What we know:
Elements: E1 5-8, E2 11-14, E3 17-18, H1 19-26, E4 30-34, H2 35-48, E5 54-59, H3 66-74, E6 78-81, H4 84-92, E7 100-102, H5 109-118, E8 122-125, H6 128-141, E9 145-152, E10 175-176, H7 180-189, E11 193-199, H8 210-228, E12 235-237, H9 254-268, E13 271-274, H10 278-281, E14 285-297, E15 300-305, H11 314-318, E16 324-326, E17 334-340, E18 349-357, E19 364-367, E20 388-393, E21 396-401, H12 406-410, H13 418-426
Parallel strand pairs: 4-20, 5-6, 5-13, 6-7, 7-8, 8-9, 9-10, 9-11, 11-12, 12-13, 15-17
Antiparallel strand pairs: 1-2, 2-3, 4-14, 14-15, 14-19, 16-19, 17-18, 20-21
Helix pairs in contact: 2-9, 5-6, 8-9
Amino acid sequence: MMDAFTRREGELYCEDVPVSELVARWGTPAYVYSRTALRTRLQDLSDAFGSHPHLIAYSVKANGNLAVLRTLADMGAGADIVSGGELYRARLAGIPAQRILFSGVGKTLPELAAALREGIYAFNVESEGELRSLSELAQAMGKTAPIAFRINPNIDTPTPHAYTRTGHAATKFGVPIHDAMRLYRIASELPGIAVRGIDMHLGSQILAIEPYHVALEQALEMVARLKEEGHELEFLDLGGGLGISYSGGEGIPADLLADSIVPSLRETGLRLILEPGRYIVGHAGILLTRVLYVKEGGGKRFVVTDAGMNDLLRPSHYAGYHAVEPILSRDREHARVDVVGPICETGDFLALDREIERVEPGELLAVMTAGAYGFSMSSTYNQRPRPVEILVDGDRAELVRRRETIQDLVAAELDLTPEEKQLGAHKGIL
Ligand code: LLP
């Protein structure tokens, strides 16, 4: 696997740029993405599926930065979206509507209407109610909505955390597999609806091939039954969820996954859709943060950083592991520490009970493998402006999202006077 983040004499680089230079220009906390890594991951995945007709509909929720989306759009990626906001971003970044699929259990009428107006490739419908709303809306707009049902296959997929399992019956996702035939019959008779495909999504951070294989078998069985009833399908969407390694390994082997899917799919002639998010962007990004203080208490050593759970929620929310390393690695003692943020919550940490180099206040740390569900899940909790985002390509670096200001954080609540806009600056707050 191509690694975008390497060390030269102990110093961390993103491609050909020392990350310390990025901090000197744009400060911390900062997300840094490698354009080459984004491209390589997308290309490798696409190559694995070879000549079988397929569309990689990148899951925008993993990282919706416009520069990231543009990079993928330029290579022919589509988008898996779950909101009107993601539709807007995807279209702004130049992803053609015909490469967009819309998933999600709670699509609103304005969101459905926007997607109909754009002319997206398919709606992955998750309930009978949604199907009927879409039919009425499409009729009123004089459009036809291409659809697939998202089938809940009732597979209990092993993922590292219960919150990222979506494929078993007791989650809110999709329609029950035993009800799917009835729904397809209804759909084929409703005005404004065109049945096009079948969709499944099993969960996120799946490292085994087996669940995809089981899901495929189920899907193909259903495709055969649908065909018997006269439904002509065009695509099979197997969702996202392809897992990566957070500790330096390889993650799910895409070529083996392809080998286990493509032969039986080929017989059906169906186009394959995949909706990977993490697989494409996870390895392509890191979060840079500065150590503010180091303190001891209760038998512990705390490294307090200027990034917290509002910047990277995964450690706190999913007990997600991210390697934490000083950007200048030296030959020195190690210490067992909790790396914690400035947020007023005990759950605010980036790493717990972790043995790392004995770092000092002022040093810079990199939180690795943070390209997916990093910035996209960040918030302004505790009134903290969100991090900058930087994109590196070879020896060039570009700011692709400026730092939010404290004025940005109040802008939607007030019509600020010019004096108030200056207030933060005048009071010396920033
Ligand atoms: N398609 C659908 C319908 C999804 O719900 C998701 C993710 C994906 C595709 C993309 O999954 P991926 O390939 O990235 O695993 N915030 C969590 C992950 C939540 C995933 C939600 N749905 C995390 O940080 O681990």
